[in-house]
């Protein structure tokens, strides 16, 4: 059996690891060049931890644990612009986490490097289109002119997935009218003193009354792990609050724009942004996928943001990892199309339940 995976993000790489470990021939294609991936601190819920364990070789899973944050964080809080806590949800440690799944706090770039270890990733190789063949296989056309054939094509290629656009042209990803500028600031003594204590302890979001909000969270590596501790920040709000030429700004200008947008809040917040690493600053918009009814199963399927893009609420990474582990298990059980159909039925149910929950949670805050 040969499987082509498009997208070497979290879910695509984990699927490739699991399938390779099961003896399946896997080709992994990634449109970006090496080292261009973005992302900072992310939360991995227990189902994500269980997925990592199920698919990774033991040494790589241990490396995930060794490079995780020294503390996972006590939970999350909502602060007002003067940095008073107005709401909190704590996640206490419970017995049996090692067996039933841990809450982990990891650096996305570090995790991605671990997940591609030992894999032959074909970088700078975008997907163009596919053809379903009469023999039940699929032919994959790539941006560099190559053509690959497989028993299954898996689109793990993100929110703007070209695989989804061909497989499910009716599937919609909706813009929510929210713009974000995000980056990270090295966690120096100065920044540690500026940051709200709850941002050092876990995850927090400063929220205003006009639609602006600013998530903050520190990532501190375990002692001895490679990596510089940092404070992740996002400045977000209604698109109309941001300059019209945002997409053409260089990174220092984006950083200044973000700092200016919160300059009327507690002065520590704009100071933290102003001390941010300019190279880390990016901008994006907030989106959510519309529910998709089941489709006729073919030797092409989807995972992660390629099918169920959701509002960031600390769960999307875990859901994508769960997709990878589920698809890997189903495929290795076979027969193939029956396995893919079973995967899709289960994934659509829990995936879009989480899309709805994340959207509702964001609306409540």
UniProtKB/TrEMBL annotation:
Pfam family, one: FAD_binding_3
SUPFAM superfamilies in alphabetical order: FAD/NAD(P)-binding domain
Domain of life: Bacteria
Stretches of the chain forming a coiled coil according to its record: none
GO molecular function: FAD binding; monooxygenase activity
Keyword tags: FAD, Flavoprotein, Monooxygenase, Oxidoreductase
Protein name (record): Monooxygenase
